[in-house]
Amino acid sequence: MRQGQAVFVDSGAWIALALSQDSFHEQAREHWDLLRGTGAKLHTSVPVIVEAFHISRLQHRPTGGADIEGGRIQIRNHQDPALRAA
Question: 65 near 76, Cβ under 8 Å?
Fold first, then answer.
């Protein structure tokens, strides 16, 4: 991956990242670290945000979830402070 490359993030990735019990959570965290390390420019769409928000709310557990606050998705994961604002 090139430094600062544009990457579209679909709902499955946001959901797996936000929900620690998701079967793809660890893989999503590894990709998140890679993207952050290369300074990737993350892009998504309104339908993706709505879907990720809706599914994460349905699957919410005390260790993770997502909220929309001030027009931004706020991903909560009490185990990793770096994931608190995405």
Answer: yes
Q: What is the mean pLDDT of residues 50-75?
A: 63
Domain segments of the chain as ranges: 6-83
HSE-CB at 2 with a 13 A cutoff on CA atoms is 4
The residue written with tokens 């339908």 in the block is 47
pLDDT at 21: 85
70, pLDDT greater than 70: no
Burial 54-77 (b: 16+ CB within 10 A, else e): ebbeeeeeeebbbeeeeeebbbbb
Task: Give the per-residue pLDDT at 62.
Answer: 47
Residues with Cβ within 8 Å of residue 85, at least 6 apart in sequence = 72, 74, 75
pTM given for the model? 0.63
- Looking up tokens 């965290």 gives 29
